[in-house]
Amino acid sequence: MSPQSVLPPRSSNSAAGSPSLEESPELSQDEIFHLLQTNRRRDTIRYLLDMDAESVKMRDIAEHVAALEHETTVAELTSTQRQRVYIPLYQSHLPKLDKKGVIEYNKSRGIVRATDRIEIFRPHLEPYRDDAPDDDAERSIIGYFVSDYYATAIAASTSLLVASLLGVLALPGVMLGTIITILFVLATIGTNHGDSLLGAGTAE
């Protein structure tokens, strides 16, 4: 079912001359990205997505956007800061969103209602999660410890062998061979375990 068939018809309160949702074509990716180009339209859409109310006052949107721009609260806004955001929203940004069927904008009453079409913007406005585990980093760490352990086992075995041959370390041949074998067995087990962890991380 196409987006147009599930969207409710626009009310008679919409701006004059605006096409109904049934008449307006589905938004292309280029149009979506164009609407999201400006901070004020992005903040407006995000605000409407977060609101549960069926309709909101245009003034509330303008104050919210202005507060974000000036990194302050609505209560701390000056009249100048409000006006600098209110006028562009009133004259340009809200009419553009209304024309594309994203909102229903009653300009004379200063009332804005989001349509179902606004939901197509949600995935583009969801915050980026930077707390997700870094699989590449995890695999790199595992690989580092595995390779480091393997190198240590080789170095230790070589040192024991050299020390025994030079007479520095008096170890029976059987014991020396047993120690070296154990070191390499542990290194092999560690390598195989590391590979299985890397494979599991890649599969996820």
Automatic annotation (TrEMBL):
The keyword Protein biosynthesis does not apply. Residues 33-113 form the DUF7344 domain. Residues 1-27 are annotated as: Disordered. Residues 1-17 have a biased composition (Polar residues). The chain crosses the membrane at residues 160-189. Keywords: Membrane, Plasmid, Transmembrane, Transmembrane helix. Pfam families: DUF7344. This is DUF7344 domain-containing protein.
